[in-house]
Every structure is written in structure tokens, then in C-alpha cells.
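Input record, target 12 of the design panel.
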């Protein structure tokens, strides 16, 4: 599962050849969540509120890059790193 970004202890990853809708995975501590790229909705799992807020802020700023990585992942091509939240 390729890591595409990391910030404030949060790790953002995306699997190759994953099911729709387009989404990414976020891990923080022992918590995990899948988040839709287009809707920015939590599809599965959960994160602490502060971590989830940071992930949503980051994802909102990088939606087009996330979609680009989604299409790369579907084609089993190397994913592009995305700048962390600062």
C-alpha cells in the first residue's frame, strides 16, 4: 500500500486496483479510515476528531492530486507523493 503523504503523525495511503468510489486511507495511531475523494466523507473506520479535521483540510486542498493518484493506482502505475499539510 503506497504512502502518498505524511503529516502530524497521520499517514495517507492508497491501494492499487481498489474498488470504487475513489478514496484514500488515513492512519493515525491505531485508528484507520477510508475517505472518499469526491465527497470527503468517511466511508469506513474512524479517526479522532482533530486528526480527521487535519485530513479533511489536507484532502480538500489536494483533491485533484488525489484523483490523479487514484487513476494511477487503477492502472498499477507508481503514485505521486502529495505535499503534506503544513
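The sequence produced for target 12 reads:
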Amino acid at each position: 500500500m503506497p504512502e502518498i503523504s505524511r503529516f502530524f503523525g497521520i499517514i495517507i495511503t492508497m491501494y492499487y486496483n481498489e474498488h470504487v468510489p475513489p478514496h484514500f486511507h488515513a492512519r493515525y495511531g491505531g485508528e484507520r479510515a477510508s475517505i472518499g475523494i469526491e465527497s470527503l466523507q468517511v466511508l469506513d473506520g474512524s479517526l479522532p476528531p482533530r486528526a480527521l479535521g487535519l485530513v479533511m483540510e489536507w484532502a480538500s486542498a489536494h483533491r485533484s492530486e488525489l484523483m490523479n493518484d487514484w487513476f494511477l493506482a487503477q492502472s498499477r502505475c507508481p503514485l505521486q507523493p502529495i505535499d503534506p499539510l503544513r
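The beta strands are 3-7, 10-13, 23-28, 31-36, 42-45.
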